[in-house]
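ingest -> fold -> write
write: protein_1
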Amino acid sequence: MGTIHLFRKPQRSFFGKLLQEFGLVAADRRTWKILLFGVINLTCTGFLLMWCSSTNSIALTAYTYLTIFDLFSLMTCLISYWVMMRKPSPVYSFGFERLEVLAVFASTVLAQLGALFILKESVERFLDQPEIHTGRLLVGTFVALSFNLFTMLSIRNKPFAYVSEAASTSWLQEHVADLSRSVCGIIPGLSSVFLPRMNPFVLIDLAGAFALCITYMLIEINNYFAVDTASAIAIALMTFGTMYPMSVYSGKVLLQTTPPHVIGQLDKLLREVSTLDGVLEVRNEHFWTLGFGSLAGSVHVRIRRDANEQMVLAHVTNRLYTLVSTLTVQIFKDDWIRPSLPSGPVAANVLNFSDHHIIPMPPLKGIDELNPVTSTPTKPSSPPPEFSFNTPGKNVNPVILLNTQTRPYGLGLNHGHIPYSSMVNQGLGVPGLGATQGFRTGFTNIPSRYGTNNRIGQPRP
């Protein structure tokens, strides 16, 4: 039999959870305003699609896609309100800000896909251009323009407003900005309207309506039906050029990249942090964009062992919090330890003494000539030493050297040894001149060749 859960909570279905979250958002009065505009948008879109079919105008169809984009914009605004009401959870510790970034990215990509569809249909129409009826072409243009402008100016869409300002300018904005500078040079009062750059959504709405008006006039005057296809291509290109920078910007946010305009400020703050009292090193720093206007980051700070962790943490957080809203700082003290050689007896299973040479350190001076404090020769006339150093004296443990099989010199030279007293009296031996090469340390049991123990079993000189 299976496990019986007496107090198990009932699992909600997907639609049940959706209704629960909608009830959370519906508590705000701004939500009902968005829903009202959504209903109006669906109504206008339905009428526009019928007029596109009756007029057989692909240019009006391309302009209607902007109205559908407005519907996605309203949905993004609704998601933004829901994100502001939700708090971070243990599963989503950074909150749900990336959801509105994803909504902006999806809306702009869908608008570009619609533009590509219009381009594909326009190319087919150039081969077989149908007849265009202008009965409701101008009416549909003004209905779509009025609703688009009314929606953009009536509802404050925070995600798209931020993206339109933070993303790079489109080619349409650049050309209009150049034209606006010329106009503002003649009429300075228009500088507040056209400069520094216009809203890209308002600009594309006005440009699309202008293209449809030209289409209507040319068809009415000369029955030039190909201008409808040309206007559709122009509207599709303007849509693609306007949405592309926004999709790139939101895509970089989803990829958790560092914004280029804050890299210099972050470097300056990190240099200031590295100069704080007690800070030794700042490493493993990583900063990324969490949402629109919010930056997250993590950094490791190594401090001195005598530094106050809480004080350093407070100073580091205070410096970086001006730019990084969600910050994780890991502080660890300096764990540098002086290396020490092991002393004492060596286990037989670790080292094989047949492969090693034990070199005792002989006393360099007599016992009566050493000072027990400084281990240096004493002079009757010299003053007492001011400092004492832990220099090696006569009682030094034997040093064990590994017997690595190195190559002898092989030059026909005698690499023997001579006593220390003879070395002092006769000077250094010069190889090849009759003298022998010795060691300045005067060790008496060093083998004649490195890496071989050929002195074993031979009498000492």
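write: protein_2
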Amino acid sequence: MATRTLLRIDSRCGWRWRAALPVSYAGLARGQSTTAAAEPQRPEMKTEVPGPKSLQLLKELSAVQESGAVQFFADYERSFGNYIADVDGNLMLDMYTQIASVPLGYNHPRVIQAFKDPKNQAAFVNRPALGLFPSGDHVQRMRQTLMSVAPPGLSNVQTMACGACSVEHGQKAMFMSYQRRKRGGEGPSKEEMESCLKNQAPGAPNLAILSFKDGFHGRTMGALAVTHTKWIHKLDFPAPDWPVADFPKLRYPLDQFTRENEQEERRCLNMVRDLMATWEKKGCPVAGIVSETVQCEGGDNYASASFFQGLQDIAKENGASLMLDEVQTGCGATGKFWAHEHFNLRSPPDVVPFAKKMLTGGFYHSDEQRPTESFRIFNTWVGDPSKMALLEAVLEVIKKDGLVDNSKVIGDYMLNGLLDIQNSFPAILSGVRGLGTLAAVDCPDAATRDKIITLMKNKGVHAGTCGTATLRLRPTLTIQRKHVDIFLDIFRGVLKDLK
């Protein structure tokens, strides 16, 4: 395959194009031995997906709960590495990986070893109220796991169970720090403590968080308030009157639309400034700004490093905190451990939620975001020590096998292949883009995209969707060139059949 130039982020001045790196497996020499031993060579398909067994199980499940989102029933005992098996005996190359949440692949030997390790047994059978009764090895585990990969400049972390509650509690941290500054560091008044119990000011202040169109941050109520993707996520739920700015809609290929994309990002930043001023005048100041580093569910929408630098500047000018949501982009998939490291921000973000590939939820935060009273950010479990035991094994493999670098190298190779295919099918595909192994391509409409997804699945490749008509790829960190070749071959064949 010919080498091309690929979309990448320039941390100093925004986007630029550069030559793709040559593919090298030096960093994966050890990693191959731990994932390739029992991994299938290719997909193996026996039925259409979903097959008869999946359909029967779906019928049974539907008798007790709404199950319209179920695509097929998996056989996780037979799944291995980058391949997912279903109950009908099909074996598919998984390029979506449980909505981007499988770091090393299925049944990775090192993770199985961690599960069987006697020293981890107590963590799996005794789930503590972690905020009250942490185990004696909890601090050591935190240092070996979450703090060993903390975003540069952030030395505080709060564990949680999932991405949505991580975002929601991060919002609370931003509100609390805003109010502490307003009080000059003094504690709350008696009036504030009493009025908050009635959902009234001054204890329940009129504050806002600014978010972006097409952003997705979760399905709990606070996270939904800053989510603006599909109606099905939000319909019938009350939502606060908070400002929503446009997120840049970049045009591709980037090197042909440099001026237009710069203008678009300036327009969006100016809108942020205007909305901040408008809500201040309304008596509802913006306490925080929240954005994904890449808008994933909303369509794999990117913005440049200069855009995020400008966003941080606006937050600081207005005394607001900046949350960069890394639930889907963290843990090495972009070629850096945290996607915001590509942005060369002048200071760390104030709040960085994580989950998915990190196996546990939580958020990193600055010193200013740390609560000054106990029980302000709290729930029964505040995380799960058993997930920390598994995360310890995952991070060991990531570091040992150079999987962050692997994401960059294989991501370049995959994007080269997608560009080749896009050039062969310009009437069907457009806007190939990505960062590391996060990759996407647009189709003319949702019906075409969904047909491609179905055809690929029946030929043995499981891919995902996002946005209005976007095909989304989210492979594991252990993906290799051979997996990409299988995907590209099947993808090209499906597009030929579609013509």
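write: annotation protein_2
The first helix runs from residue 29 to 35.
The chain has three domains: 1-38, 39-113+400-498, 121-385.
pipeline exit 0
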